[in-house]
Amino acid sequence: MTALPLVLTVFVACAVEAVEALTIVLAAGLTREWRSTFQGMAVALAVLAVIVAVLGPTITLLPLTALRLVVGALLAIFGLQWLRKAILRATGYKSLHDEASAYLREVAAAKAAGTSSRGRVHDWYAFTLSFKGVLLEGLEVVFIVITFGASQHNVGAAVIGAAAAVLVVTVTGIAVRAPLARVPENAMKFAVGVMLTSFGIFWGAEGAGVSWPGQDAALLVLVPAVAVVALCYAVLLRRPRAAQPASALASEEVTSS
Amino acid sequence: MKRLKSIGAFWYDFVVGDDWRVAVVVVAALALTAVLVHAAGINAWWLLPVCVFAALGWSLRRAIRS
After folding, report:
1. B57 touches chain A (CB under 8 A)
2. pTM of the model
3. Which of A7, A26, A125, B12 yields a CA-CA distance of 20 to 30 A from A79?
4. Within A91-211, where are the H helices?
5. In A, what residues contact B, Cβ < 8 A?
6. With an 8 Å Cβ cutoff, are A208 and B34 in contact?
């Protein structure tokens, strides 16, 4: 199996989370103070890097069968969460996440908060807002990087995918200096949900002792099958009165977390 | 104790999410697959996908009815 699906899945998953983290970082930086915001972001990224550096190599020490059983179960459960949320948003049963309004909420809260300094951090509110935003959004990416990377014994490729996504979103965010509200987050979450669920099924069943027909080539059937079933659910459950969800998976501009 | 509880709640929400039944179906399907493969000698590769598709549909149905 090539590293391409691994890198692409991690890239898209990380891009979605990075867009959400960027909204919080921009709100903290533009409203409060950039130095403390960057400090919070840097500490959060360092914590995430330490988690990957410690857990990545450790988890690969597990026997492959046990690793795939555990990781497969976790990925399937995790992927189904993403798919469920994306389908509910696409069908209108859950509201689409709006980066622009999320940004305005964060800005209002940041403006209302008082200023206090601790140690080298001048604005503690900006620091903690940025730290929590990056850490919480980043944890999902770390989970995917570790589980996906470990199962293919290629944590390095997963890290490259994640780093590339952070770079692309950061550069775009700096250029635009506004929340990336036009990114089709729900469609991206749907795609990541399909990949996580498919690989979770594949590795989980392998870990349970199954031999897939066609071995790794079974994924070429499994991934489209999961996508088709999920799309069928999205079409079947679509709210008749909701006009916006019909195109939400394909072309939404204001999206979800 | 309170902090431990909140950490546990965070990780539960992080991994399991809104519908714990989905997690139960996935784990049960994996256990049944292992039993079929190792005890009955049946290569039950089809079981997990079927259970996952059913669990997703069930969970979505419950969500839209609530």
Report:
1. yes
2. 0.79
3. A26
4. 99-112, 124-151, 155-176, 185-207
5. 69, 72-74, 76-78, 80-81, 83-85, 87-88, 91, 93-94, 139-140, 143, 197, 200-201, 204-205, 207-213, 218, 222, 225-226, 229-230, 233, 237
6. yes
